[in-house]
Structure formats: C-alpha cells, structure tokens
Amino acid sequence: MQPEEVPELPKAVAAHLREEGIEELYPPQAAAVEAGVSRGQSVVASVPTASGKTLVAELAMLSSVARGGKALYIVPLRALASEKKTEFERWEAYGFDVGVSTGNYESDGEWLASRDIIVATSEKVDSLVRNGAAWIDELSCVVADEVHLVDDAHRGPTLEVTLGKLRTLNPGLQVVALSATVGNADVVAEWLDAELVESDWRPIDLRMGVHYGNAVTFDDGSQREVPVESGGRPTAALVDDALAGDSGTQTDLSEADSDRDADDVGDEDGDSAFTTESGSTTDSDDSDQGSSLVFVNSRRNAEASAKRLRDVVAPHLTDDERGRLAELAAEIRDVSDTETSDTLANCVAKGSAFHHAGLASEHRSLVEDAFRDRLVKCISATPTLAAGVNTPSRRVIVRDWRRYDGEFGGMKPLDVLEVHQMMGRAGRPGLDPYGEAVLLAKNSETRDELFERYIWADPEPVRSKLAAEPALRTHVLATVASGFAHTRGELLEFLERTLYATQTDESGRLERVTDDVLAYLERNEFIERGDDSLSATGVGHTVSRLYLDPMTAAEIIDGLEWAESNRAEMIRALAGEGPTAASTPKSADTPTMDAGFQRASELASPDARGESNGTDGESNGTDGESDESPPPSDDRTEPSPDDGPTYPTALGLFHLVSRTPDMYQLYLKSGDRETYTEVCYEREAELLGRTPSEYEDVRFEEWLSALKTARLLVDWADEVDEDRITERYGVGPGDVRGKVETAEWLLNAAERLAGELDLSAVPIREAKKRVEYGVRDELLELAGIRGIGRKRARRLFESGIETRADLREADKSTVLRALRGRRKTAERILENVGRRDPSMEEVTKAADAAGGDSGESAERSGSTATSSARPEGDPEEQASLGDFG
Length: 885
Ligand code: ADP
What we know:
Shape: globular
Largest sheet: 9 strands, mixed
Distance between the termini: 37 Å
Strand content: 5-15%
Structural class: alpha/beta
Bound molecules: adenosine-5'-diphosphate
Helix content: 40-55%
Number of helices: 34
C-alpha cells in the first residue's frame, strides 16, 4: 500500500511522506490502515520495536484532524514528549499545529485549545482532565504510545484510568494504542473496543544469539566466531568485532565449545581495562563499521562499561572523527559542571558513551544524536534507553539480564518483554544487512537457559496494576472530584470499565479495596458521604487538582497543622530555650490501626527522648570551597533569636515534603543511619511532627531517608555546587534535578493547602523559591530574573548588585565583569530586567578581560537556566532542570 492510497489522509501529507522516502507502507502499517486507522477506527497495534508504529499514529492523527478533529498523543516519559513534538512539527507546514504539555501539573493548559496535535505524558493528561481543560471534550483521536506500560506498577494505573476517563468523556473517541509485542494484545484490544493488528514483521532481519566461549550461536543455528583473548571480556570482543566490519568468520558448523568461563557476565564492576589486540587502522573506512548498544543493569555499570570500551573503540576512529568527537566532548562539558558530565565527555572523546536516567536531558540528546550520526560508536546503557528512544544499532549486547530487585530479595531476571525491546534496537534499516542481538553466557548451561528464557520465549501478558492501594487512593479521589462518579455505584461502574476489571477473576476484590479507600478519604476529610452520595470536600478538590497522592496531602496537612499548634514551643526550642518536641508528648493516645489508614501524626511515636540542641549552627551547605559560590557567612536557614526565627525552617519543610509518598527518597547507605540519626537529634526541633522512636524500625528509617533527601535540598538551596552534591549523596545530576523539581511541586502544593486551611504560607513560599532557584534568601530577587541562574546571581551580588533596581542602574562594565565578559548574555539580562538601554556596545574591552568560559557552562545547569535552556513558545515548560525518566 502506498501513502496516496490511505483513505482520508490529506494528499499533501501523502506527498510529503513520499518525499521522506516512504513509498510503501510497512505491512503492519498497511494492516492498521485496512483495519480503519485513518477512518477513525480504534486500533491496537502490537508490533516489534522499530517497525514504524509512529507512522500508524500519524496516519490516524492527521486524518482525524483533517476531518475537523483534535488529536492527543500520550507518551510514557517526559523525555519523549519533546522528541515526539519535534517529530510532529514537520506537519506544521501543512497547517497542523503541534503543542506539547509537560509543565506543572496544576493547570488547565488553555493555550493548548488552539493546537491540533497535543503531546503529553499520561500524568499530564490526567491532570488536565482533573483541572477541567475544556478542549478535552473536543478530542477525536487519542494515541497511547507503549500501552503495554499499563503493566507498570508506578505509572500504569494512571494511563489506564486516563484512557477510561477520556473514553467516558468522548464516547466516539478513536483510541490508537501502540504496543510492543505482548502475550495478550487481544485482551488489550477487547478492553479498548479496538481492532487488533498483531505482527512479528520487522523492517530488517533480527538475529538473536548467545555468546559463549569464542563464538555467538544464533537462533538460525549459525555461528559467528568472536574470540575472547585470555583475560579479556566478551563485551569488548563483541564491540570490537562489530567495528571491524564483516570480516569475521561466519559458519554454520556445530557449536564451538569452550570450557573457559566468560568473565564479564553480569559482574563488570572491576577496574581492569580491556586492551584490544585489534589490528584495525586509524583510517578504517566506516562504511561497514557497526555500532553497538550494550545494556547493563545499573548506572554505575553503564559508566564503568563505557570507560572500558573507550580503548576498544578509539583505534577504529578516523582523524576527522576524533576532531568532531573532541568538539562534542566540549559541548557535553558545557551542559553541567558535574563529575558525570566530565566522565561522559572523556568517554565520548573516544567514541564510547553511556546513557542512563541520571544524565541531564541535554546530555542524553547529544549522545543519541551523535550515535545516530554514527560518530559515537558504542553506548553502554541502562534499559531506559530501550523505552522508546530511536537509536538503532548494528549490534545489541544484552550484558546483564538480571537486575537487583529489593522485593524479590536478589537478582531477578528481566522480563522477556524488556529484553525483546532492547534486542529490537538492533539493525539500522538501509545501513545494516541485518541486526544482531546477543546475550552473554558464562557456561553452556546458561547459554541453553538464555535460549529458553529469552530467545525462544514469548513475551509476558500485560496485567493491570490498578488494584494497588496508592493507585486507587489517587484515582478514586480524582474520579469523585472531577465528577465522574457521584455515588459508590457510579464509581464502581467506572472502575468496571478498566483493564483491571476485565482481568480480575477474584470476585469482590475491586469492591473491597475501593471501600477501604473511600473510608480513608472520608477519614482525612477529602470526601463526604451522604446516604448514597459521594462528593469531594474543598480540600479534596484541591488535592485532586494538585495531582497529589491523598496520603501525601494528609502528611503535609498534618505536618503544617502540627507546626501551627507547636509553634511557640518549637521557636523556643530553636532558640535553645525550651524542651524539644520529643519531651512533650502530644497525642499520647495513638489509636492502633492499619498504618495506611491513620492520619500522619497518629503514626508518630509519643516516645520521649533526650533533649536536642537545635541551634548548633551546623550549616549543611557551607563547607564547599568553591570560589564560584562563596557561601555567605550567616546561615539564613538557621533561625536566630535576634531577627525573629523563621518557622517552619526550610529544612523542616523540605523534610516534610520528602517524607511523602510522592517524593522518591534517597537510600540510606552504610553509615548513613548513624550520620542521619545524629542530624535528626540535632535538628529535631525543626522537623514538623514527632520523630518516630528508633525502635519503630521502618518508620524511623523512612524518617532518616527523608532527612537525607531534605539535606540534599538544603545543600542545593545553599548554593552548594551541583557536583559536590552529586558526590556527597552518591547520585547523578539528573537525580538532583528530579528531587528539586519534585520538591518545588510539593512545596507549591503545600502552599496551596496552607492557604486553603488558613495556615501560614509565607515560609513555605520562601522555601519553594529557594529550591526553585537554588539560592539563599538574599539572592531570591536576582535569581528570579530570566537568564540569571544561581551562579550569576551570586557573582552579581558579590559585585554589589543586589536587586532588580540595582541591575537597572548598575555600571555596565561591572555587570559585564560579573557575567564573565559575556556581552550577549549581559544584554539579554538587562533587557529582561527592563533596562532602557541594554546595549553593551560602548563598554570597553577591558571588562572582557575578566571573562572566560568557566562559569558559563555551570550556569546552564542552574535551576533558572538561560533562556536557551528554556524552550521558547511553550509557556508551560518548567523553568528548571532536565528530565530524569
Ligand atoms: P517504532 O515506534 O515501531 O519503534 P518508529 O516509528 O520509530 O518505530 O520507526 C522506525 C523507523 O522506520 C523510523 O526512522 C521511520 O522513519 C522509519 N519508517 C517507518 N515507516 C516506514 C516506511 N513505511 N518506509 C520506510 N521507513 C519507514
């Protein structure tokens, strides 16, 4: 089938597809068209990775919009939203407006009403529905990308409920669900009342095999000799072999055997470097060079693997490539001033990269682009990369097929679905004759096991995870608050339409869990129940609109109310005058109930414990020696009796939001328990609520993890350098960004809840601003100016420019010096602050002398970021930081 033959597809679109080289639809695409995807029919397309699912979505969306409708494309990860938007923007030339919505949750995204195609995550769509976005009713076509993720315990329920709501709101809605090949696509199709298109077809052959000894055995019985030097590692040998091109020996002889164990299966943590014996010359023609993707099970392993593979890749590079890679490495360093950024740059300079969720989004796209351009030859990645980013590769090496799983209590084999998605990245259409996906075995038993487990195996069926309590808690409140259900009966009727309901065979379970959740919501005053009626309270509506887990809201409300009623005492304790919270038990009659159904303060132990000293002056963030951000001598987070203490303190508020289920807390590593127990007692008067007893193991541990997370946030808000923070807490820059963004969102929610409940909101607003900008109090005004990040704000402040007014009046050469001679930046900033004549033209060169690039790179990672880091034209784009999915 040709593009012109697709019914109801605008002619111009078909012509454009042809120009792009799409002359013939791939068979699964043709099958979707035959099933009616361009005529408004709902379709579930369950086809392998890289077989052109995006085009199926485009055919559906463009023809639907051409009929006067509006389309929504739901992505599983925020990182993918902007990628998809860019991809769809080529249709703007034909009159299809594209918008992306990834910003703050609480908004109705009214501006999106004018767009024809909207890209958003399921969380965002859910929130738009809760906020009553009017245009939701106008949707005619919704695409769910990677719909098999309804199986994901964390994010699946939102996707599932969101699709249910959209279908309830728009009964005629076309649903196009794109899925990897799964075991029960028919069940998904039945749930969505859709036609099923199921196929194993791939645009390029995929050969799957297992490397063991000195050869890879493929599924068709053939073998490829890939010898491993004594003491060498199979991964390195496979990467080297792919780069060397097609000169390897391919045989269909019986299996080669070896009794030597491969040494790098799942344990490449060591430091020993592999040195290749490759005879390749530096000028090797790259036309038949094959790139490799290596999948490993942790970020640390990804970095270690990329470092090792540098020496394998480097000998295959041409002089020209080395030059271009050096430029790319410089660009990577410019993204942020962290150790991760440095390590990545060092690896990329030699053509080997790593990719994981701890990287900044700019890092990720630089690496992905360079890999697609065949400049970077090898990426060592955690499986995040397999989830949707289009990075085809000649060879895929699944090095680790097990991952640590706490609930499982050890190393757990990955799902077949996940391994198949990784393997599906093998083969670049038009470049490779076929793709190769290889697993690694230490011995012949493992080789046989891997064939059984992954190569011959079918992917698992997807199963709904909606019945889990946190998911139901959130979605039941939202369903009631946004008017989808006014009675228990209506609520159950809505839930009956979910995938969960079609899958569960345990009768009564959904009803039982729903009743438990309703009781919890009523107890916390988020809903009210009449005889047969259900309605949300004012606070309940706010909680739902803020997109909070009700348990998060309960914890925050409890903490804030506790602070209000213990204010005087805590302020005395902070000033070192009175007894601390712990010595004056408040609610001694703690009811003994199921933990999940108690109010947060009821969970706290009334145990009295020793006195603590809340004013020891410990400053978490002032031991950084960096001259980039000299910390001010007074620690503004410490209340002082002289200027009237700020209560609650930033630490107290950070701790409060960090202990909610909506914050992914930092782990306690060995030694942390002692450290944070000490911090806990020292700062106890600042914490909002009673510290649990040390004997309540789980509660106490969570309390300390939250404290560790809060301390990271305090460091950030105290202007500690990002790389010091990553080092101190053993996390990646993406994690810092993630925590900061979540804290910003939760503090914003806390401020709103405080307003609703007539509690004091000022300290919350200040703490939120400090975490948003990553600065101390005195810089809040400057850091709020567009184009000024935390470091620039600090340098301007040090030069005597402390306010917006100062900046409008300041001597231009002083401004330029503080901005390290960056004229364009200086002009833009002066423009943003409303200076009449922002031009830097007449400022002498002398001001440049103090310039240099060193400060600029770091600037971009600051939370307010330069305008270039904040995409124009998207009013909802969050001001800060990268994605971290
Ligand atoms: P999936 O979403 O299934 O993983 P994509 O939609 O990303 O796969 O498609 C993979 C690649 O195939 C893209 O580069 C796309 O441009 C290309 N492609 C899709 N359909 C066709 C076609 N009919 N002919 C040629 N190339 C195609």
